[in-house]
Amino acid sequence: MADALHDTSWILSGPLVAPADIDVVIAFDDGAVSGFSGCNRFRGQYVVSGEAIEFGPFAGTMMACVEEAMNLERDVLSRLGSTVRASIDAGSLRLLGADDELLLEFTAVTADGLQGDWVVNGIHYPERDAIISARGDLPVTFEPHAISGNAGCNQFHGSCTVTEHALTIGPLMSTRKFCGDDDAGSGPTIMEQEAALLAALQQAVGFRLEGSRLTLTRPDGGISVTLHRA
Question: Which of 62, 67, 100, 153 is the most buried (most CB within 10 A)?
């Protein structure tokens, strides 16, 4: 079971029913479990022995959401805490309670889930040692073996190779228009943001796909670009 869970991501498919705009996700990596439980991100530990599994304790963000999301989150975390056994079959992860009651069921997230339209949320700026929120709409489209989008001023496109949880983007080519910017304040200008986004995309070597959220990661494991499904 430990090998089957290692470096995998899953999205809730039952028996709890999440609202249409909420994806409950869980990911496993070397004894650590993380995910999105309906309102907040969580992280904790898990221990596996055969089919037996134990979760917790969990730590997480402390954001407040609408009542429906908060109720879902409490139920998800409670059921994870009550899980004693897990089984994987045909791309489905089933978490079971003490009497083999089905507590949570998840469907595997695969690399094919990257394909489609996304919008950039945040970009890594190495010189500022920070992830800065994107200004304006920065659409990105993943296709089989290709990526394209708008970096804020210019259109870009290039190659993209995805295998399991690794990816290689670039080289990227873009149009060569210049855009002025009088509203940047102390933040990055449109052209600085564009340069940072193109560099961050090409620096990415891995990804975490959590339902409608996508995080591209750097070689050191840090965040390169964050996106949400368009």
Answer: 153
